[in-house]
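Input structure tokens:
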């Protein structure tokens, strides 16, 4: 005779076994991480950051080819292609999308409102509409953000060239952080009575016009706000600064290592270490909406003495002593 107690016991055992089987399946599922690059992922800087990301994941127990799959896509600077690749990653249902810079983060957000997105070194993500606030992002986006360093760049330029009166800025106006960059540069410039002009570039054909404007202005210094577009054309910007013999300051330290005169900014690789931490927490069940956005904690001042010598420029000892790296 089957009693009610036996029926309930059988149901309970069945539910327990089903839960255990489901849990085992979820535990054995290999997570898939999508990485969406706007520019090339084969530049020296990108290769370095990709390696840092993988090492950081491995330190947390995620080894590519063993217990995690990394799906990387590169738009090579093509906006429409970027949107297509974002939709592609969403369609294959990766578990999380890592998106360096605002441009990629925005494309990923347009492609999905459910898959978690980890933005990296995104300028002004609140202004870009990606998150509600740094403390409580809301939605499916979190990650790291870059502060604006234009005020610091102005101060460094003043120290580098005490007699300077005119500065030029080259930036991409479509970058969500561009407005803040200009505002802070102007505020710092007023302290030193600098006259500052802005040259805007958002397409390859804009570069020649921007270079002509700066050449005609004959500034005493040039500030470069780097974003994925300008990053893809950094060799042209560095070559222009050299050909016009204008001292240039960049906000990505690697650009001084690649021939720029001086750079001050966050240690970019740190973002990719933090990205692995976000991915780990999300794969373990954390919701992006509840993960505060982090800002960089370490910064570098890099000075290229080779470039200074080519420009016939003497770098003040005060700057050399504060530099984290001096390229001889």
């Amino acid at each position: 005779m089957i009693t009610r107690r036996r029926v309930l016991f059988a149901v309970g055992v069945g539910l327990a076994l089903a839960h255990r089987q489901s849990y085992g399946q979820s535990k054995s599922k290999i997570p898939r991480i999508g990485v969406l690059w706007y520019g090339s992922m084969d530049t020296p800087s990108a290769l370095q950051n990709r390696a840092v990301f993988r090492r950081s994941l491995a330190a947390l127990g995620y080894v590519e080819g063993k217990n995690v799959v990394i799906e990387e896509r590169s738009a090579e600077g093509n906006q429409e292609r970027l949107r297509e690749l974002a939709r592609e990653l969403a369609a294959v249902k990766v578990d999380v999308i890592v998106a360096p810079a605002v441009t990629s983060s925005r494309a990923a957000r347009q492609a999905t409102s459910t898959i978690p997105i980890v933005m990296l070194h995104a300028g002004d993500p609140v202004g870009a509409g990606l998150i509600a606030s740094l403390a409580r992002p809301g939605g499916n986006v979190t990650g790291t953000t870059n502060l604006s360093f234009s005020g610091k760049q102005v101060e460094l330029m003043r120290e580098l060239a005490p007699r300077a009166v005119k500065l030029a800025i080259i930036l991409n106006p479509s970058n969500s952080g561009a407005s803040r960059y200009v505002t802070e540069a102007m505020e710092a410039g007023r302290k030193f009575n600098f006259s500052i002009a802005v040259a805007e570039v958002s397409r390859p054909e804009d570069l020649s016009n921007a270079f002509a404007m700066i050449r005609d202005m004959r500034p005493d210094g040039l500030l470069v706000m780097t974003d994925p577009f300008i990053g893809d054309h950094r060799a042209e910007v560095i070559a222009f600064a050299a050909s016009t013999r204008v001292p240039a300051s960049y906000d990505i330290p690697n650009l001084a290592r690649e021939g720029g005169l001086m750079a001050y900014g966050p240690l970019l690789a740190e973002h990719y270490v933090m990205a692995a931490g976000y991915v780990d927490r999300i794969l373990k069940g954390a919701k992006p909406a509840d993960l505060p956005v982090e800002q960089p904690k370490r910064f570098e001042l890099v000075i290229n003495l080779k470039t200074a010598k080519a420009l016939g420029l003497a770098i003040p000892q005060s700057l050399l002593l504060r530099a984290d790296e001096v390229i001889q």
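Confidence is low (pLDDT under 50) at residues 1-27. The chain has two domains: 31-147+268-297, 150-266+300-327.
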